[in-house]
Amino acid sequence: MSGYIRKADAIDDLHTQLMYRMGSDDMKRRLDDWVKTLPSADVVQVCRCKDCKYFYEDIGICDNPDALVSPTADGFCSYGEREE
């Protein structure tokens, strides 16, 4: 599992923690503003082979000629497309 979190989840958790500690509305607002200014992680969503429309798990091959030579279910490549 990745170490990335959504800003909205962080803010909700901070509010919960603050309710138990100080309950200051001003502090909540300042923390909200601070979290919103944090840079977002530069992540790209990938399509794992097991979810790709080109991968046949029962025989372990990928039908995309540009993809991995020997794919695994947990593998991925830049040509993967999710199965509808």
What does this structure look like?
The protein is mainly alpha-helical. The chain folds into 2 domains: 7-37; 44-84. The chain has 2 helices and 2 strands. The chain has helices at residues 7-21, 25-37; strands at 55-56, 61-62. Strands 1-2 form a two-stranded antiparallel sheet. Helix 1 (7-21) packs antiparallel against helix 2. It is rod-shaped. The chain starts with 6 loop residues before the first helix and ends in a 22-residue tail after the last strand. The model has no long low-confidence stretch (mean pLDDT 78).
> Span between N and C termini?
24 Å
Estimate what percentage of residues fall within beta strands.
under 5%
- How many distinct domains? 2
Helical content band? 25-40%
Please state the average pLDDT score.
78
- The helix-and-strand class reads mainly alpha
* Strand line-up across the major sheet: 1-2
From the alpha carbons, calculate the radius of gyration and give it in angstroms. Answer: 21 Å
Distinct helical segment count? 2
Low-confidence stretches: none
The shape is: rod-shaped
Largest sheet, strands/sense/barrel:
2 strands, antiparallel
- Give the SSE string: HHEE
The tally of beta strands, per DSSP, is 2
